[in-house]
Amino acid sequence: MTPPSRRSRRNPATPWLFAAPGLGLLLIFLVLPFVLAFVLSFTDQRLIGNDDLGTDFVGLRNYRRLFDDDSFWAALRNNTLFVAVVAPLQSALALGLALLVNQPLKGSRIFRTIYFMPVATTMAVVAVIWSLLYSPDAGVINRLVNLLSLGQIGPQDWLRDPSLVMPAVMVLSIWQGVGFQMLVFLAGLQAIPTDLYEAARLDGATPRQLFTRITLPMLKNTSIFVVVTTTIYAFQLYTQVQIIASSGAAAPVDSFRTLVMFMVHEGFRNGKIGYASAISVVFFVLVLAISLLQRGLLREERVVT
Questions:
Q1: CA-CA distance, 240 to 174, in Å (whole number)?
Q2: Which site from 10, 118, 161, 230 is most exposed, i.e. has the minimal number of CB atoms within 10 Å?
Q3: Among residues 197, 168, 36, 233, which one has the least CA distance to residue 104?
């Protein structure tokens, strides 16, 4: 009698047992909060309950009010501008750094560590430090600009000027997050077979041709992942702008307020949980659309390859 195969002895419930802790955490901290937010978005729920007023079903009133709210559109505009600038610029800079630290040179590991150090630093700490660097009086940024412009550009009030506060936030955000994308690109570069480069060099390929004909095509999936994840993280912009707003030395809030900041302000400062829930649902739909875009692009890439 032949022994049963390993596949036949496998318990079909075993994979679910291993996945149960992760699925449970997703259910508790992701699915359940979204369902509650979706339900509350159709009510006038308040942060502090009132037995006399209670909680009433208001239908689509919160959503109609949201799309008529100028602050919402200002926050969405700031988020869109931030994403449109940070996502491609940070991805391109990360690719450049990855190409540099991937060179077989002594000390390359030290530079990898240096570039990654800001990622390991809490964003709250980074925002506070850069707020000091942006100081109009004794800030290092103004002194550097003055030095590079040979004194032609005077001190700028980076965080109070409505036209400069978002670019200032973009710079500190790119500086803090570029190290993570650099490591992702570095992993993609190291996965490219060296035989391809050697064969291309024997055929007389130039360094530019090596980059455009081998490196970029082989990094297509990695590039899609980096750009899309960077876009999602950019939409979640909150900590740095909140710290700038709390410092008291900031431009008008609509010039740098984001969707997450707007949602927190309405929910916890104004106590409008129902309205904040509507904002969170709209925000979730935006992030979900980006995730579906990533899935579609990756699926198309698999079909091509």
A1: 12
A2: 10
A3: 197
79, exposed or middle or buried, with CB in 10 Å at 0-12, 13-18, 19+?
buried
d(CA 153, CA 282): 42
Spatial separation of the C-alpha atoms in residues 287 and 31, rounded to whole Å:
15
Contact (CB, 8 A) for 258 and 79 = yes
Structure tokens of 289? 């659309």
Q: In angstroms, rounded to a whole number, what is the distance separating the alpha carbons of residues 80 and 69?
A: 17
Alpha carbons 278 and 77: distance in angstroms, whole number: 18
Chain segment 86-141, per-residue pLDDT in tens: 999 999 999 999 999 998 888 788 888 888 999 988 888 998 889 888 888 778 88
- Say which CATH superfamily domain 39-304 falls into: MetI-like (1.10.3720.10)
Element (H, E) at 294: helix 273-304
Structure tokens at 230: 């960077």
Could you tell me the two tokens for 40? Answer: 């509350």
